[in-house]
Write a structure and sequence with these properties.
By secondary structure, this protein is mainly beta. The protein has one helix and five strands, in the order ββαβββ. It has a five-stranded antiparallel sheet with strand order 3-4-2-1-5, covered by helices on one side. The chain is globular.
Amino acid sequence: MPRIRVVVVKGKEDVTIKIADRGGGIPRSKIANIWRFSQSTDGEEENYSDFGIDDVCRSKLRGFGLPLARIYARYFGGELTLKSMEGYGLVAYLYLPRLGDNYPFDSVLVD
């Protein structure tokens, strides 16, 4: 499995979290769907999932994480953006406003 790289940086106005992977990315034709609830970039051929089946719509429960994460980011005055390179990987940026100066770090790299 490809490594995931995480960088956390404290700026003057924001704390930015960058998460990058080499998992193949998302095709541009499917990017608009990632912000819609109950959508997935995986096709119906997905059979390795542990997701349950919804009793109402009779489909797999998935596609809530990214829309909810963006809603929470915006609620707290930030933003969540994704940049995809199909065939290579994806980079997610989470920007959150600084709420004070009591952070024990200036930047963190997790590899």
